[in-house]
Write a structure and sequence with these properties.
Chain lengths: 255, 343
């Protein structure tokens, strides 16, 4: 297999006296979907935050394309092509889908007006419509506030916003948590499309059937450590649950 | 589903102009203003729909309009600025003091050099308070209501201290003639032109630039804005600086028009500006608003007052009517939000 695009090695993270991560490792390759699973409090969200720049690990290294990196902020990660879809999907409900898609990355007009900060709204609307079509996001119109869309559509836009800009890695923390069956399938489709374009997708999920249907590999965290790795094709629901609860362990203690 | 889906091969459409128009709050409040003008014109066809009357209306609202323009930005970020009236007085006072000092006592005979120094002083005076407000709100995270309630008192106190509590009336005659009572283009008051130019630039800034887009984003969801890489703290600071700057400019305009610093005359400017902005469809919860709405919102109370005066209704009714329109506007805004956030 090719070299990992993003890798965490022996990462620890402590909040005061609480050890959220106790020397865990994680690998993801370009063009694969890796599910990161574990019980509540296993450290999944913390690990993702450390790799996405939202938190800094207490110790351990993060490698990106083979080189060690330090991510001071989500913006630093974004510059490398690493995007995150957060659990609480922050969108600006009063802005339209196009404005949300381009938030923080607005296209300016050419020339003097652009230098003064004037936006090219038409170009943004057109490109947004293209991207939404490409990702299979269905919207009635491109200029209604996102808040007036259904929960599923809002979620699709939030997912699309990260995916469009993620050239290397995209983290998704429970992107389908609040969705109905159809909407969930749609988000999973987006995940597959993004993977097929060569982007690495890291999916946090509690939904095991979903994990088995969309992920290529699964890495399992328990109490702040990675305890197992599976290729989805060879794994069963029992394996995953066993690893999560501690009934099954593949990896030795790293200390 | 009736949606145009991508599977149909159709692109995602913009809504039609008509749909966009009727769903905008601004459209309805514009109808209210139009109705008021028509009613008063019908009641007093000789006195209300006259050039002179509309000229007076425009002049008397010019200063408030500039305050309300700044307030629009602040309210769109989900904030509030109670200090604008006091900052206006402070800026006028600093400006008058500067012009008097440069003229060796009385600035009545002063020329353009001194007047420009006075303008710079007024704007700087406004910026200082804008910075104080912005720093405490954006950086120290004190709620805007409290910060600007504090600076509302402090700016008025500071202005009073500058001249031992009395007004300055020695304003350059040249300034009064040019900006205060002068007209251009065949009778349009210069004060109105100034306010209109400021409003147009602000509308451009709010609705077409990245600064404006970030203002909406910060008001709509600060956390989303932060994650999108927008410097929320810096942006809020800029917005309060802009409001301070405009209050400073309004202070200079007020000085030119009334030729006094008017310490006692602007106690309710803040509430009038807020009322105008909110009536114009800008949401107190942030994220929504238009400059056109603010212009309409400024004119509704003014038209009511003028109309009542002309039709010999006691203009205390204006206060009641404005209060009712204001509450109705906020109620509509909340209804709209509730029905929209259905899921």
């Amino acid at each position: 297999m090719s070299d990992p695009i993003l890798e965490a090695v022996d990462v620890t993270k402590t909040y005061g006296s609480v050890e959220a991560l106790r020397g865990t490792s994680f690998t993801v390759h370009a063009g694969e979907v890796v599910a990161l699973i574990g019980d509540n409090g296993a450290g999944k969200s913390t690990l993702v935050k450390c790799m996405a720049g939202a938190e800094q690990p207490t110790s351990g290294t993060i490698r990106f394309e083979g080189a060690e990196i330090r991510l001071d902020s989500p913006t630093a990660a974004r510059r490398l092509g690493i995007e995150t879809v957060y659990q609480d999907l922050a969108v600006a409900p009063e802005l339209d889908p196009a404005a949300n898609l381009f938030l923080g990355r607005e296209i300016r007009r050419p020339g003097v007006l652009g230098a003064l900060g004037m936006l090219d709204k038409k170009a943004m609307r057109r490109k947004a419509a293209e991207e939404f079509s490409r990702l299979g996001v269905t919207l009635q119109s491109i200029d209604v506030p996102i808040g007036s869309l259904s929960g599923g559509q809002r979620q699709s836009v939030a997912v699309a916003r990260s995916v469009v800009w993620a050239s290397k890695v995209v983290f998704m923390d429970e992107p389908t948590a609040a969705l109905g069956v159809v909407q969930r399938e749609r988000v999973l489709d987006v995940i597959r499309r993004v993977r097929d374009e060569g982007v690495a997708v890291v999916l946090i999920s509690h939904n095991m059937p979903e994990v088995l249907s969309v992920a290529d590999r699964v890495e399992v965290l328990r109490l702040g450590r990675r305890v197992a790795r599976f290729t989805t094709a060879d794994a069963t629901l029992e394996d995953l649950v066993g690893a999560m609860t501690g009934a099954l362990s593949q990896e030795e203690e790293s200390s | 589903m009736t949606a145009t889906t991508v599977e149909d091969g159709g692109a995602i459409q913009r809504r039609s102009l008509g749909t966009r128009l009727v769903t905008a709050n601004t459209f309805w409040i514009a109808l209210v203003l139009l109705a008021l003008i028509i009613i008063f014109s019908a009641l007093a066809p000789d006195a209300f729909p006259t050039v002179f009357n509309f000229q007076r209306l425009a002049i008397e609202t010019a200063v408030l309009l500039v305050l309300a323009v700044g307030m629009t930005f602040v309210i769109i970020t989900g904030g509030i600025d109670l200090s604008v009236g006091s900052v206006l007085i402070f800026a006028g006072m600093v400006s008058a003091k500067t012009m008097n000092a440069l003229s060796g006592g009385s600035a009545i005979e002063a020329g353009w050099g001194v007047i420009i120094a006075g303008l710079v002083a007024a704007v700087l005076g406004g910026l200082v308070w804008g910075f104080v407000n912005g720093f405490l709100i954006a950086k120290a995270k004190v709620p805007p209501l409290i910060v600007t309630l504090g600076s509302f008192g402090a700016a008025l106190g500071a202005a009073s201290l500058l001249n031992n509590g009395s007004d300055i009336r020695t304003v350059p005659t040249t300034l009064k003639r040019a900006l205060g009572s002068g007209t251009s283009f065949g009778g349009i008051p210069n004060l109105v032109i100034t306010a209109a130019v400021i409003t147009l630039i602000a509308a451009w800034l709010l609705h077409t630039t990245r600064f404006g887009r970030y203002t909406f984003a910060v008001g709509s969801n600060p956390e989303a804005a932060r994650r999108a890489g927008i410097g929320v703290t810096a942006h809020l600071l800029k917005v309060y600086l802009l409001t301070g700057f405009l209050a400073g400019a309004a202070g200079f305009m007020s000085l030119a028009y009334y030729s006094t610093t008017g310490i006692a005359a602007h106690a309710t400017d803040n509430l009038n500006a807020i009322a105008a902005v909110v009536m114009g469809g800008t949401s107190l919860f942030g994220g929504v608003g238009t400059m056109v709405g603010t212009v309409i919102g400024v004119f509704i109370p003014a038209v009511l007052k003028k109309g009542f005066n002309i039709t010999h209704v006691q203009d205390y009714w204006q206060m009641i009517a404005v209060g009712a329109v204001l509450v109705a506007a906020v109620w509509f805004d909340q209804q709209r939000r509730r029905s929209r956030n259905r899921s």
